[in-house]
Amino acid sequence: METNTNKRFDAMETNTNKRFDAMETKIDKLILKVDEIDKNVISLQLTRAEKEGEEKGYARAKAELTAK
Predict the structure, then answer these.
(1) CA–CA separation, 65 and 48 (whole Å)
(2) Which domain holds residue 55?
(3) For the CA atoms of 26, 29, 35, 37, what is the dihedral angle to 10 degrees?
(4) Which of 22, 25, 32, 66 is 20 to 30 A away from residue 14, measured at CA?
(5) DSSP secondary structure string, 29-66?
(6) pLDDT tens digits along 17-31
(7) Residues 58, 46: contact at Cβ < 8 Å?
């Protein structure tokens, strides 16, 4: 038989694990958002470089975009 202390410890551990899993999920979602923002920034740089005719900037932005 489990003692009351063991039951409380198990419940606390379960709760902590759930909170940790939820935090991991939030972090993963934030990482995906940051990656998407990064791609958008590079895409905007690429568009600007195309419009301004900056060959070096265009080549760099295109290389960064394809590397992602």
Answers:
(1) 14
(2) 4-67
(3) -90
(4) 32
(5) HHHHHHHHHHHHHHHHHHHHHHHHT-HHHHHHHHHHHH
(6) 999 999 999 999 999
(7) yes
Residue type, 55: E
Count of domains observed in the chain: 1
Structure-token pair, residue 17: 């694990």
Q: What is the pTM of this model?
A: 0.59
Tokens matching residue 50: 């195309």
DSSP line for 1-37: ---HHHHHHHHHHHHHHHHHHHHHHHHHHHHHHHHHH
